[in-house]
């Protein structure tokens, strides 16, 4: 799996179009990000398709800060390799054109872009004291134990010591990769 999570600012033109692909009309949105979190990346190409492209396009402008979750893909186009992140989810963070976006959303009766998500994305540095614990509910149905990973994050100068709990298989998966300073 090549999942990508990146937070960055739109640095160049935002391109939106409706393309005819194999006889089907699809909405296409392309933008370029400069990212500093979680790693420094210059000129990352982001692609968003179909309903999400239509949904997010009215809110975007140069300088917007976004969180992008997607898949990294490489493809050949006119004898050149193109590397891009195909976005599955986009979170609008800062410097968003809310007035224009809401006007268009209401005009076409579209859902709100961030209105249906209960996801939280936090970028920070793991502090000392991380613990992996096992909980056994003793239910008698054989469901067994499950993991709890407890840690604290330093996110910026204002948010230091944020308590985070990760549960279940995700806790087991990430624990070996984390250490103080990650």
Mean pLDDT figure: 85
Helix run count? 3
Alpha-carbon Rg, integer: 20 Å
Overall geometric form: elongated
- Order the strands across the largest sheet as they lie in space: 1-3-4-6-5
Summarize the amount of helix as a percent range.
Answer: 10-25%
Unreliable parts: none
Question: Main traits of this protein?
Answer:
49% strand, 10 strands, 14% helix, 3 helices, mainly beta, five-stranded mixed barrel, 182 residues, four-stranded antiparallel β-sheet
What does this structure look like?
This protein is mainly β and 182 residues long. Helix content is 14%, strand content 49%. The longest helix has 11 residues, at 98-108.
Secondary structure layout plus pairing:
Elements: E1 3-10, E2 15-21, E3 24-37, E4 41-49, H1 50-56, E5 65-77, E6 80-94, H2 98-108, E7 125-126, E8 131-135, E9 146-154, E10 160-167, H3 168-174
Parallel strand pairs: 4-6
Antiparallel strand pairs: 1-3, 1-5, 2-3, 3-4, 5-6, 7-9, 8-9, 9-10
In short:
By secondary structure, this protein is mainly beta. It is built from three helices and ten strands; from the N terminus they run E-E-E-E-H-E-E-H-E-E-E-E-H.
């Amino acid at each position: 799996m090549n999942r990508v999570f990146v937070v960055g600012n739109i640095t160049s033109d935002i391109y939106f179009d409706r393309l005819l692909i194999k006889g089907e009309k699809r909405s296409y949105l392309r933008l370029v990000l400069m990212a500093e979190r979680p790693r420094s990346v210059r000129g990352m190409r982001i692609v968003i398709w179909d309903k999400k492209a239509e949904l997010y396009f009215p809110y975007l402008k140069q300088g917007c800060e976004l969180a992008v979750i997607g898949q990294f893909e490489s493809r050949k186009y006119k004898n050149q390799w193109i590397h891009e992140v195909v976005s599955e989810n986009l979170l609008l963070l800062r410097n968003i054109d809310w007035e224009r976006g809401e006007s268009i959303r209401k005009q076409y009766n579209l859902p709100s872009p961030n209105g249906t998500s209960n996801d939280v994305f936090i970028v920070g540095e793991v502090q000392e004291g991380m613990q992996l614990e096992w909980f056994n509910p003793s239910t008698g149905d054989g469901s067994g134990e499950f993991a709890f990973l407890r840690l604290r994050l330093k996110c910026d100068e204002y948010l230091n010591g944020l308590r985070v709990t990760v549960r279940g298989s995700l806790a087991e998966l990430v624990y070996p990769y984390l250490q103080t300073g990650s």
